[in-house]
Design a protein that fits this description.
Layout lengths: L2 H16 L30 H16 L4 H14 L13 H9 L34 H9 L5 H18 L18 H13 L4 H9 L5 H16 L6 H6 L3 H7 L2
Length: about 260
């Protein structure tokens, strides 16, 4: 079984775990399994924009074998307008910076991300995991994929750091991870990455990692998806609870995008 499948299923299930709890304050809930409804009133196992945009990126790489920035942005636009890569073609969540970039896209120039410091949500970090599986991908290419929607240096640097960390885990390299206290599980890209490293580095199984991530509260779907991607790589598809895989919706969409 491919590491990409490990990663993307780990990511999507983390996303679906977090969807019902998004924006809920830490300590006001206790997630122990996959449920539905909650914040977005979605059926259990429904993934959000995090997985849809990750799958759009996967699908582009699958078609071309390399990074085609314009094609990726066209796929993001089709997701936003037509619900491509979304379950039941329903788009129920999108970050403001990503939405702004899609509105700016003219079909030609794909680099639509803002550079200002206020544009450092986690909207590019949440979709770059497939880049870890592209042979010989450069830091500049990773940076450009972030620039499609998020062009500030902080977002770019954290995207590069995440992709390189994922590659180290794929290759079985020793990794040294550190995080800052206190853990702020917000949508700010630095807080998100810090929360991911905390959940991943202080647990020893896929299930433990994603439950720790979601119970941090705040931006639960994105943080748990990103942590779940790393945990999926480390522990493998077979480590994911069978019940969660069974409940996960959109498996046909996921499988069609894997390369």
């Amino acid at each position: 079984m491919s590491k990409l499948k490990d990663a993307i299923y780990g990511f999507a299930i983390g996303d679906a775990l977090g969807v019902p709890y998004e924006f809920k304050e830490r300590g006001t809930f206790n997630c122990q399994t996959m449920i539905g409804h909650g914040t977005w009133n979605q059926k259990a196992g429904t993934f959000s924009d995090d997985t849809s945009l990750t799958l759009a990126t996967c699908a582009s790489i699958k078609k071309y074998g390399v990074i085609k920035y314009q094609d990726i942005m066209k796929r993001f636009t089709r997701w936003y307008i037509d619900g491509e890569y979304a379950i039941d073609r329903v788009v129920f969540d999108i970050g403001n910076t990503t939405m702004s970039a899609i509105h700016k896209f003219d079909g030609i120039n794909p680099f639509c991300g803002d550079t200002d410091a206020w544009s450092n949500g986690n909207g590019s970090l949440m979709r770059v995991l497939p880049l870890a599986f592209v042979n010989n991908i450069t830091d500049d290419e990773i940076a450009n994929v972030s620039r499609l929607t998020h062009a500030n240096k902080l977002s770019i640097d954290i995207c590069i750091k995440y992709v390189r960390l994922a590659q180290d885990i794929i290759n079985g390299n020793a990794v040294e991870l550190s995080y800052e206290e206190p853990i702020k599980s917000t949508g700010f890209v630095k807080d998100t990455f810090n929360s991911v490293i905390y959940a991943f580095s202080t647990t020893s199984s896929y299930k433990e990692c994603v439950l720790k991530a979601v119970n941090l509260g705040g931006d639960t779907d994105t943080i748990t998806a990103i942590a779940g991607g790393l945990a999926g790589i480390k522990y493998g598809y077979d480590s994911i609870p069978r019940e969660w895989i069974k409940i996960l919706r959109g498996k046909d969409i996921i499988d069609s995008c894997l390369f």
